[in-house]
Amino acid sequence: MNAPFALSCSTVRLANLHDPGEVARLEGFVARHPEGTPFHRPAWFVSVARATGNEAHALVQERGGDIVAFLPLDAVHSPIFGRVLASTGFAVGGGLLAHVGADVEAMFAAAEELARRLSCPSIELRGGRLPPAGEGWGLKTESHANFARPLAADDDTQLQAIPRKQRAEVRKSLGSDLTVEVGTSERDRAAHYEVFCESYRNLGTPVFPRALLDGVVDAFGNNADILTVRHEGRPVSSVISIYHAGAVMPYWGGGTWAARRLRANERMYYELMLHARRRGCIIFDFGRSKTGSGAYHFKRNWGFEPEPLTYATWTAPGSKVREADPTSSKLSLQIAIWQRLPLALANRLGPPIARGIG
After folding, report:
1. How far apart are CA 107 and CA 130, in angstroms?
2. So where are the chain's domains?
3. Per-residue pLDDT tens for 148-207?
């Protein structure tokens, strides 16, 4: 599998992800590239593949011994949704990173060849350099948007930067009997997963296996943590955040039914803004949301403006387009049923299904 793909003036090959030196080269490339994201890091795509029983791959293009293009990929298998080669799995970002002069067409051709080798009828590129539409590739625009803005210089300015109605909710949360903890201990992880499971069940979405969340926290080390809001000692809101290039990204978060009454989610995100600034962050990246969704409007209420995203998908000739969007209208009945499951049953059934959503 490490044989070179088609040559031009550069060589495209599969990286050896079992070689610590190769992995370090890739981490360095992502860190230096202006469009690199946490989801391009081997710490992400290798960890999520290992934790979910999927496969991690990486295409690199080299010229004169230097990496000029890099495409991280997770081959995700689901008996329900089929197989997909995603850049990257369980992420809202990824895609091709390339320097000026790189042969990007060769990278896309290599990705198609790899997909065929792995019997993946679909490829999803969630950002980065994208191929033109045609010859199996399609572009999806306006379906999702990202939300990011600079952090304020101090606590009070941060509060004042929140629009009036949302600021009033935050103020109410500050007056509630809530406590905030940040860490990555077993106590932090257990509290987060307890909240996360209930939140996902309430949304009608199969919950990810805890091994996936733990794997990312472990791999990112000091660049990840868990912030949990408790009421009378019990966790009611919690979020795993990733730190990259001066930005904090709250990624896996949620709240219990009690969180809404207590405004615990408002407290969680406000406290994370303050915590991230104290860590030296300058950007709060609220992540992506489906256009028009509840999460989309929630982020706008905080004063964040949507930035439309464009993704690319490839479908092998004769194959059906993959459908694994949990917000799809085609899955509305399944979502409604899932929301009514007893929590213990949802927690048992969810991880085997979710590890194949990708």
Report:
1. 10
2. 11-145+310-322, 152-281
3. 999 999 999 999 999 999 999 999 999 989 999 999 999 999 999 999 999 989 888 888
Report the pLDDT value the prediction gives residue 329, as an integer from 0 to 100.
59
User: Nearest-5° angle of CA 166, CA 179, CA 302?
Assistant: 15
Please provide the average confidence, as pLDDT, over all residues in the chain. 91
Angstrom distance (rounded) from CA 49 to CA 52? 5
Output DSSP code: residue 263.
Answer: T
Q: What is the CATH T-level fold of the domain 152-281, as seen in this structure?
A: Aminopeptidase (3.40.630)
Provide DSSP, 69-103: EEEEEEEEEETTTEEEEEETTT-S---BEE-TT--
The three-class DSSP label of residue 290 is strand
* Beta strands at 178-183 and 306-315: parallel, antiparallel or unpaired: unpaired
Class of domain 11-145+310-322: alpha beta
